Amino acid sequence: MEAALATILAAAAPLVFAVIGETITEKAGVINLSLDGSIMLSAMAGFATAFVTGNLWLGFIVAALVGMAVALLIAFASISLKLNQVAVGFVLFALTRDLSSFLGNPYVHQRLAGVPHLPIPILENIPFLGPIFFQQDLVVYGSLVLIFVAYWFIFRTRPGLKLRAVGERPEAAHARGIPVNRLRYLYTAIGGALVGLGGAAFSLDMKLGWSYQHTLNFGWIALAIVIFGGWHPYRAALGAYLFGALQIIALKLQPIFPGLSQVLPSMPFPIMILTLVIIYTDWLKRLADRFPSLREFLASEPPSGSGVPFEPE
């Protein structure tokens, strides 16, 4: 049981980085639909950098910078040029996906030592919890810390209040002297960097290596999980762990149903979409009305200013 839960935490860690990053971006009012290609290009850049330099952590840094650069392109196109965010996102998705295949071709099937495990002394010996939470690597530890830091920042700090304001009510935020577009640039860049870290976490840890379209469809799943998560870090993380569990179950079932070996790996994707459809219904809203203390966690409405350019008068 402990081993299975620890595996789910590790498998979901890259998605946690991506969904928290996109949650922050969308909270600020920008939609990054290039996510699938951005994760792919970041994964390739991180692996290539680590392979060439022999420095694993430099690979993570480069991947974060790549993710940030793609996000800033979307921010520039939508905020400064007032272009349609959805159209720009799809164009960048196709561009980054093809770039990852073209530039990553020399690194296909190359070998590299991944992120080493780093058990935490004393804590690793705690019954049940130790093997699950404290016998992981730095990527998993970082993803766990990120969930709580993101929640605290968004909902418990003054800068987090400004972040929500520029996504929810940009006109009111501007009237109070908050630099709406400047903050949208900032949080889009931060969100993109986290997406880039998620890409590196795939190629340098969870799916060690690089191959053609190495992370295909994980970006779309991340976008779905952001909606599933109601733009809330805790629910988004829960969605990432649910998807990780579905992946592990599919892998466990492959030896039992060898004839379905081509189908089972893709099963988590439609199951996740079905779960999203079930979750994203009125019953969550009714539950929030019944339990007001849970409203913050159960809220599922997107930021009202999301995807809409803001022009100060």
Q: What does this entry look like structurally?
A:
The protein has 313 residues and is mainly alpha-helical. It has a domain at 2-215. The chain contains 14 helices and no strands. The chain has helices spanning 2-27, 35-53, 56-80, 85-104, 129-133, 138-156, 158-168, 170-175, 180-206, 218-228, 233-253, 268-279, 282-290, 295-298. The mean pLDDT is 88.
| Main pleated-sheet profile | none
Mean pLDDT, to the nearest integer, reads 88
The quaternary state of the protein chains shown equals single chain
Instruction: Briefly note the structural class of the backbone.
Output: mainly alpha
Net shape: globular
Q: How much of the polypeptide forms β-strand, as a percent range?
A: under 5%
Poorly predicted sequence stretches spanning 5 or more consecutive residues: none
Distance between the termini: 58 Å
Instruction: Please bin the fraction of helical residues.
Output: 55-70%
Q: Count the helices. How many? A: 14
Rg over CA atoms, rounded to whole Å, is 19 Å
How many extended strands?
Answer: 0
H/E element sequence = HHHHHHHHHHHHHH
Provide tags for this entry.
313 residues, mainly alpha, 14 helices
Q: How are the SSEs ordered, and which strands pair?
A:
Elements (H helix, E strand, L loop, with lengths): L1 H26 L7 H19 L2 H25 L4 H20 L24 H5 L4 H19 L1 H11 L1 H6 L4 H27 L11 H11 L4 H21 L14 H12 L2 H9 L4 H4 L15
Helix pairs in contact: 1-6, 1-9, 1-10, 1-11, 2-3, 2-4, 2-9, 2-10, 3-4, 3-9, 6-7, 7-9, 10-11, 10-12, 11-12
In short:
With 313 residues, the chain is mostly helical. The chain has 14 helices and no strands.
